[in-house]
Automatic annotation (TrEMBL):
A GO molecular-function annotation: oxidoreductase activity
Domain Amine oxidase: 15-95, 110-351
Species of provenance: Neolewinella marina
Descriptive protein name: Amine oxidase domain-containing protein
Family membership noted in the UniProt record: Belongs to the flavin monoamine oxidase family.
Amino acid sequence: MNALHSDVAIIGGGLSGLTLAYRLESIGRSVRLFEGRTRLGGRIHTLYPPDGPSLEMGATWLGRKHTALWDLLEELNVEVFEQRHERIALFQPGARSAVQGIHLPAGEPPSYRIRGGSDTLIQALNLRLRETDVRTGCAVTGLRRGVDGVEILTDKGLFTATTVVSTLPPDLLVRGVDLAPALPRELTDLARQTDTWMGRSIKVALTYNHPFWRENGRSGTFFSNAGPVTEMYDHSNAADDVYALKAFADPRLSELSPDRRRQRVVEQLVGVYGPAAGRYTDYRETPWAAEPFTTHPAAADLLPHQNQGHALFRRPFWDGHLWLAGTETATAFPGYMEGAVRSAEWTAARLRQ
C-alpha cells in the first residue's frame, strides 16, 4: 500500500483531532493527523513564562457536568484543581461610573482548571499516539474525492486516505479548504453562519509578584461594560504561589497595535485597582481573530454559539468518506472542551461501524 495512504486522515490537531486519533489508533486504524500550526492543541494554547504560572490563552475551565472531558482526564491521569472562588466581584457599569462590589451567588458549582495548564491534556494525548503519523506545520489546502477515498492536498505534498475527518471550525473548512466536489449548498451556507468558538476573542494575562486584588475587600473577578477588559479572573497556579490575572478584552481592540492594546488594558486596571496593577512582571495576549488556523479573514461577525451543534454537521458526506467533527459540531456543550471531546467520541463510534 502507498506509504502516503492511511485509513483515516484527521484535519486539525486540537482536542477533537487528538482524541479521535487516540480512539481510532486503539482499534487498529492507521491514522494521519495534519495540523497547520507548528504546535498541537488548536484552541487550547497554554503559555509558560519562565517565572510565572501557566497562562491559558485558550480553553481554560471545566466543571463536573463535563462528563466526557472528566472521564478522559481520569483515563489519562491528568489532574485538575479548583478555580479560586471569590465571594464578591468588581463591576464597572460604564467608563465614568464608580466600580462597585457585587456579591456572587452562593452555592454555585465550582469550576476547575487542569493542573499544569490545559496543554497538559494535549501532551498526554500526543504521548499515547504510538502509531499515528502526526504532522505539524502541514496545512491542508484541498480535498479531492477519489474512486476509493480522498486525496489530501497540503503545503507539504499529496496524501490519500479512505476517510477524512475535518475537526476545523466549519466556517474555516468551507472558506479555507478547496473541496471537490463542493459540499451541499445547505451545508456551506450553514457553516458560513456558524460561530467559531473563540474566533474573535482576545485573551490577556498579566503576572504579578503579589496578589494585590485579594486585599482590602477587592477581588480578581471583574466585569466591565466599559472595557477594554470586559471579564477577568484570578489565574494564579494550583499551589497559589505564583500569581496572575486573566481577562477577556473587547474584540474590537484587534484593530489596535499590540502596544496600544496593552496600554489600554493596563490603564483600565490601574484605574480600578490602583498603581499595583501597573507593576506586572509579564504581559501576554492572544487575539484569536489573527490566528489563520482558527478564524478565516472573511468570517462573519455572528452571535456567540450561533448554529453550533446543528444536526447537519453530523451527516457523512462524499458517500461516507468525509466527516465533520470538532466542538462546533457537538450535540451538547458545543464551543467548549466538553463539546470537543464528545464530538471526537461520537465520530470514533461511527467510524468503528
